[in-house]
Amino acid sequence: MKNNLFKYLSLWGLFMLYFIFYRTVFILYNISALNDVPVSILLQSYLYGLKLDLSFSGYMMLIPSIILAASPIIGSRASSNMLIGTITLTLAAVSIIEIIDMQVYSYWGEKFDAMHLRYLNDPKQIINSITFKTLMFPTFLSLFLFYFHFKVTKWLISQFSFDLKKNYSWQKPLLFSTLIALSLVPIRGGFSIFPFRLGIPINVGAVYFDKNKMAVNHAAVNAPWNFFYSMKKASKLDRSNRLIPEHIASGLFNEINGAQTKGTPYLSILNTTHPNILLIVLESFTAKGIEVLGGAKSVTPHLNKLSKEGVLFSQFYASGHRSNRGIGSLFSSYPGLPYDAIIENPFKSEKLPHLIKSIKAEGYHTAFYYGGEIDFANFRAYFNQGGADKIISKLDFDFSSNNTKWGIHDDIVFDTLFNDLNKELTPFFYTLFTLSSHEPFDIPIEPIFGSDNNENSFKSAMHYTDACLGKFIEQAKKTTWWNSTLVVITADHGTTQIDNTSNGQKETFHIPLLWLGGALALTDTVISNVSCQLDLAPTLLAQLKINPPEYVYGRNILSKNYQSRAYYSFGDGFGIVSDSISQVYNSEIDAYTHQHPSDSLSDYGRAIYQFISNDFFSK
């Protein structure tokens, strides 16, 4: 039994060695993209890459584990043959993906994923891209590896003992069933000790570690893990990009989104073009819980009071229903899709503009503070791509502070940010993303609205975070940097909590946007244009007189040419809001579930869905 366990672990180790080998081949084959990277950094790609290597090795071990567990029933000869066949075929598939990956990367600087399978529809394009020289090495490497895989696998399997005494035949199924269960830990991405649970699902961003050279991050990515992950996502998105003729979709999208506002006259609301900037993103803060936006009374008294001290954008909407959609919209002006978020696809998101990068280029010190796990929703990769000078997350706080399911309570994170800002050089652009108002709404104080149901628990959590925000702002007003600082307060998304609105209903996506601080030239002002998260980056950059990128989606809300509109994705489709219309398209049934003021509106929902899907796939 001990011999079998050792051989089992040896098989797992063999898989890991294969990935180390392939990573080395990838680096050498694409050395032109990595020739200015120090060896010490290249070696780190192996260390960070272990996360996805272990995860995919866990998948690879599942079938062998099942065969080994069942070997007392199916017999030694059948078990041996099944193991040799299964492992050889698995390694052959891994080799094919790895070899294609290094070839694709050498051409386009992209990791091989589901998007590249579309080229199979045009074999001529593939043939035209291949030369005899580029075909030789991958072909010979493939033939060698296929032979090597078979020989090594056959030898290793021959070392297993399939003959157990009858009295102990129960041990093998129990052992390998336990190992199958344990393999879920690396597949999932680890576990947390307090509270004890499996970790958040691992993603590609978990292996991103270098903010200066994306190629070294790409080297750390496990090619087959990335490929199958992209296949899973593509299967959900593929049906959404051929709903109506392309020229009609493009025309309707441009009609609802409005003309570009870059370079157009706009209302200036700052007294300086080089202020410090604080962006505070409040988890799930819906307008339904904010009285000044028409929501419930007494839930957010501090936010209600602060709204009189700054500029309130009263008709501001989230662009999606999850944090991964909202963050991508706020920082890159890119909309979410019902089944995906671009920031969870690092090879796509690295092609986007990034608000941190644009502002940092003007000499700003930058940071992102989040009390949760930084690998959640690929935050690590995304904010490294933006070039954030400092990323603070759960692991940067004392272990004693980590006493909730999601991480660190908001009051501790706000206090940490405040203390750090008093030591920071100016100008700075710092972001704080809260988490205490995320379900299960775990807060360190007595819930003021009770906790007898989800709505009251959520309102209590909103009230707690609002108190943390109010305290922080009052402290900030007494500092030397307040008079030259712009504070932007918004949310990552709304919620169905409070009044039980539906997931596609516009009220679910209505969120706050409030600008405060000594850098403002206006106070007690309300901007009532319908707008959304996509518009924050172009609006802010215009106020800073920073030449913005060519945003496809976002517009400057304060431009005199701005066309009021917002659109948002949810689990089943898209919603559209403007001064005169609202529309909800459900892709699952391919129909509109809401249209106002009539049922004869243009086909905006399908057009937006198709336009964004095609743009997403093209990146």
Outline the structure in words.
The chain is of the alpha/beta class and 619 residues long. Helices cover 45% and strands 11% of the residues. It has 19 helices and 17 strands. The protein has an eight-stranded mixed beta sheet, with helices on both faces. A four-stranded antiparallel beta sheet has the order 14-15-16-17, with helices on one face. It has a three-stranded mixed beta sheet with strand order 10-5-13. β6, α14 and β7 form a beta-alpha-beta unit. α3 runs antiparallel to α5 and α9 crosses α19. It is globular, with a radius of gyration of 27 Å. The two termini are 51 Å apart. About 2% of the residues have low confidence.
Overall SS class: alpha/beta
**Percent of residues in beta strands:** 5-15%
Rg for CA atoms = 27 Å
Strand order of the largest sheet: 7-6-8-3-9-11-4-12
The beta-strand count equals 17
User: What overall form do the CA principal axes indicate?
Assistant: globular
List the uncertain runs: 164-168, 191-196
Number of helices: 19
Q: Helicity level, as a percent range?
A: 40-55%
Distance between the termini: 51 Å
Biggest sheet record? 8 strands, mixed
Average pLDDT, all residues: 86
List descriptors.
alpha/beta; eight-stranded mixed β-sheet; four-stranded antiparallel β-sheet; 19 helices; 45% helix
